[in-house]
């Protein structure tokens, strides 16, 4: 099932893959079916939906894509959009993420997608990883159907995970405690998950799980992909067992969080088009405040517009990047919310908004000590924090 908003005058199509985690064995899927049924069955889906963020048809909320044909594909396959298995004796669940995308494409071709100039396959969280896993396959499918003229691109939001060491190692009992590598390893077998051929060839048989991690699959992709990733992604911290719930953060956790930002920044340095603010958050492109976040003075819609232009220009004449229109935007400041345009943080218990300094204090950030390490006066450090330098 999918939702479609047609825009007859436009030859641009945006297909959005919804996110929502995954389950990887009988127990975790049974529990998911109990608590999040809409992520496993279309039974309770509404008849219509309102698009927000990049799916909005309001130019104020969506300056560059408001006029596109929009398709929202809800997530009911629990397999990071990778599965290709029907219900069987072995499993009472069907995992068909990869096949759902193929079927939607087949059907849309008759509804105008066939005359498209650009197809942007976008997704958030598990949908963002789904973009990395499926964008080349969508391009191949359209070519095989005889639509060579459509430029297929990807936009992966909050789906660029690291297979790093957890802050505290825990056994793989459920989706929260299970380290991502282990969960995906089990998941691929359970879902009969498929990964792109070019990525698969980089790894030994049985090691296909590597292709679920952005920095490993990205170099193998043919289609251009824009990567949007918070440097301190809440879903990443959760699977790494850093739980920021009201208690001040211990020094070990604080160092771990800063190191996570550094590692993530490193994996993005060779990604041509990227937007990575130093915020603690998860998902952005369908949020109505997505236009407010800036990296080095450039907003995300602007960066996507620059990327569109650069792909258009390079198709014509392979020119250098456009002046004043950056597409590689990564914050260089070292801790969560050192970027003043980050989304508002609220105290999880009181619901009160916090400014950066309150947030850092709440996280157990020691201003005196930090200032000493940086060789600064504490008041100067506070000034820099609140202005976001």
Summarize it:
33% of the residues lie in helices and 13% in strands. The protein is an alpha/beta fold and 389 residues long.
Walk me through the structure.
This protein starts with a strand and ends with a helix. The chain has two domains: 3-343, Rossmann fold (3-Layer(aba) Sandwich), CATH 3.40.50; 345-388, no CATH class. It is α/β, with parallel strands linked by helices. The chain is globular and about 65 Å long. It has helices spanning 26-35, 97-109, 126-144, 180-191, 197-200, 214-217, 234-239, 251-267, 300-317, 356-362, 367-374, 378-387; strands at 3-5, 12-17, 69-73, 118-124, 151-157, 225-228, 232-233, 273-276, 280-281, 294-295, 298-299, 328-330, 345-346, 353-354. Strands 1-3-2-4-5-6-8-12 form an eight-stranded mixed β-sheet, with helices on both faces. A two-stranded parallel sheet has the order 7-9. The chain has a two-stranded antiparallel sheet with strand order 10-11.
- Going across the major beta sheet, what is the strand order? 1-3-2-4-5-6-8-12
**Architecture of the largest domain, CATH level 2?**
3-Layer(aba) Sandwich
Shape: globular
Structural class: alpha/beta
Q: Rounded to an integer, what's the Rg over CA atoms?
A: 21 Å
The number of strands is 14
Q: What fraction of the residues are assigned to beta strands by DSSP? A: 5-15%
Q: How would you sum up the major sheet? A: 8 strands, mixed
Pfam families: PAE
Family: Belongs to the pectinacetylesterase family. Notum subfamily.
Protein name: NOTUM carboxylesterase
GO molecular function: palmitoleyl hydrolase activity
């Amino acid at each position: 099932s999918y939702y479609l908003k047609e825009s007859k005058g436009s030859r641009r199509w945006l297909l959005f893959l919804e996110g929502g985690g995954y389950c990887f064995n009988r127990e975790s899927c049974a529990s998911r079916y109990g608590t999040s049924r809409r992520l496993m069955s279309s039974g309770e889906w509404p008849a219509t939906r309102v698009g927000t963020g990049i799916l909005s048809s309001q130019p104020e909320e969506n300056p560059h894509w408001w006029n596109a044909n929009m398709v929202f594909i809800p997530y009911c396959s629990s397999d990071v959009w990778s599965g290709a298995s029907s219900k069987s004796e072995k499993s009472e669940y069907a995992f068909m993420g990869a096949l759902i995308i193929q079927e939607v494409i087949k059907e849309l071709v008759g509804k105008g997608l066939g005359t498209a100039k650009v197809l942007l396959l976008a997704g958030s969280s598990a949908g963002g990883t789904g973009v990395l896993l499926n964008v080349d396959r969508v391009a191949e499918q359209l070519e095989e159907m005889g639509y060579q003229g459509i430029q297929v691109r990807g936009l992966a939001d909050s789906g660029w995970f690291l297979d790093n060491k957890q802050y505290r190692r825990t056994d793989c009992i459920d989706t929260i405690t299970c380290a991502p590598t282990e969960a995906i390893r089990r998941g691929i077998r359970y879902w009969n998950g498929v990964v792109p051929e070019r990525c698969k060839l980089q790894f030994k048989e049985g090691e296909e799980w590597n292709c679920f991690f952005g920095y490993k699959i990205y170099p193998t992709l043919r289609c251009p992909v824009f990567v949007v990733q918070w440097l301190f992604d809440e879903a990443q911290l959760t699977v790494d067992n850093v739980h920021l719930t009201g208690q001040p953060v211990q020094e070990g956790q604080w160092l771990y969080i800063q190191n996570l930002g550094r590692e993530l920044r490193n994996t993005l340095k060779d990604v041509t088009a990227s937007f990575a603010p130093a915020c603690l958050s998860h998902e952005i492109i369908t949020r109505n405040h997505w236009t407010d976040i800036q990296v080095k003075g450039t907003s995300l819609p602007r960066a996507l517009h620059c990327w569109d232009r650069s792909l258009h220009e390079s198709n014509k004449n392979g020119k250098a990047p456009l002046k004043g229109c950056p597409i590689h935007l990564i914050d260089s400041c070292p801790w969560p919310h050192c970027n003043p345009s980050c989304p508002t943080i609220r105290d999880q218990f009181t619901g009160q908004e916090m400014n950066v300094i309150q947030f850092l204090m709440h996280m157990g950030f020691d201003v005196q000590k930090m200032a000493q390490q940086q060789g600064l006066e504490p008041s100067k450090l506070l000034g820099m924090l609140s202005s976001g330098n």
